[in-house]
């Protein structure tokens, strides 16, 4: 089943969303669904229209007739009233930024058709090493189910998600998470807010408070993410934060487990060739690569975990944490 290189999806009309990617087979969690090189790259799409148009025309000139046809058939979010020419509007709508800290991006024909969901079943990432964009299944995708990714890089409550998607992508999200009944929606918002508050506290406060308090906050964050059913890049990111904190407090044993978990989640979301996976594998094999590891304090005595026992990793990792421990301190 895994031997075929045929695409496990087709691009077809999805009611209310234009075109989308529909699975043509059951796709297991962690499977690479798509690996696509850009049709062309642009240094930025934020420049005067005539300049951007000239750049796009130069790129289109190098393409085949079929590729040009596919380009002009892509969705354009910029209507006539905006004064943006269609050829420019298509690039502004579909060029995907490689790295949130730089304006450079690429135009991908198949990836441009992947619709958004706030709790998606797939994750996309740009692989600088291979020069390709990949999409991996975050959970099992059933045959004929739509493949979705999140256009939002950080978990946000519903209203903030809606505003972001309206401002940047010009649509109102009606995904499963956004369409929950009001009470469940409010519960989900509260959980996502709690995660954001904890991330903020850990980001600003770690190093200044007791390690036990940092561990309790981490434990609470993972607990809430699990209850909320989050399985996306927030998980490897959270484990990496946990790894850094354990390193900072000189807790080598937990640091290794956190790094392994960050690695395992990244592999499943981006594949073995991902630059982030290579970096994390380095930390798992040589935790001293992390600069703060060099500055390590002695792990506080009461918090040195006993040797790891098979089958009870979470009990070992977190000890007897409770929600009260995370709230207090
Ligand atoms: Zn949504």
TrEMBL record:
Gene3D superfamilies per UniProt: SET domain, Tetratricopeptide repeat domain
Signal sequence extent: none
CDD domains assigned: SET_SMYD (cd20071)
InterPro entries in the record: SET_dom, SET_dom_sf, SET_domain_protein, TPR-like_helical_dom_sf
Pfam family membership, one: SET
Domain named SET: residues: 7-152
Coiled-coil stretches: none
Cited PROSITE patterns: SET
Annotated protein name in UniProt: SET domain-containing protein
Organism of this sequence: Cercophora samala
């Amino acid at each position: 089943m895994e031997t075929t290189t045929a695409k496990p999806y087709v691009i077809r009309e999805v009611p209310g969303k234009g075109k989308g990617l529909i699975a043509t087979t059951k796709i297991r969690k962690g499977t690479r669904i798509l690996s696509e090189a850009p049709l062309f790259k642009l240094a930025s799409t934020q420049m005067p229209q005539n300049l951007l148009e000239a750049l796009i025309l130069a790129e289109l000139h190098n393409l085949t007739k079929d590729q040009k046809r596919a380009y002009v058939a892509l969705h354009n979010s910029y209507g006539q009233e905006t004064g943006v020419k269609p050829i420019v509007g298509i690039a502004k709508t579909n060029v995907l930024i490689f790295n949130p800290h730089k304006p450079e991006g690429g135009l991908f024909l198949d990836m441009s058709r992947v619709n958004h969901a706030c709790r998606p079943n797939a994750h996309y990432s740009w692989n600088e090493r291979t020069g390709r964009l990949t999409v991996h299944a975050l959970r099992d995708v059933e045959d004929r189910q739509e493949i979705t990714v999140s256009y939002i890089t950080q978990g946000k409550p519903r209203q903030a998600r809606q505003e972001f998607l309206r401002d940047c992508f010009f649509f109102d999200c009606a995904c499963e998470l956004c369409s929950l009944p009001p009470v469940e929606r409010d519960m989900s918002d509260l959980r996502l807010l709690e995660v954001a508050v904890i991330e903020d506290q850990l980001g600003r406060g770690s190093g200044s408070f007791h390690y036990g308090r940092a561990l309790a906050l981490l434990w609470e964050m993972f607990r809430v993410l699990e209850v909320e059913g989050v399985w996306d890049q927030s998980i490897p990111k959270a484990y990496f934060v946990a790894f850094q904190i354990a390193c900072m407090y000189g807790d080598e044993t937990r640091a290794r487990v956190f790094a392994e978990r960050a690695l395992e989640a990244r592999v499943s979301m981006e594949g073995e060739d991902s630059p982030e996976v290579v970096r994390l594998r380095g930390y798992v094999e040589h935790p001293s690569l992390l600069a703060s590891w060099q500055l390590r304090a002695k792990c506080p005595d009461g918090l040195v975990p006993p040797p790891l026992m098979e089958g009870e990793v979470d009990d070992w990792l977190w000890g007897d944490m409770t929600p009260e421990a995370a709230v207090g301190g």
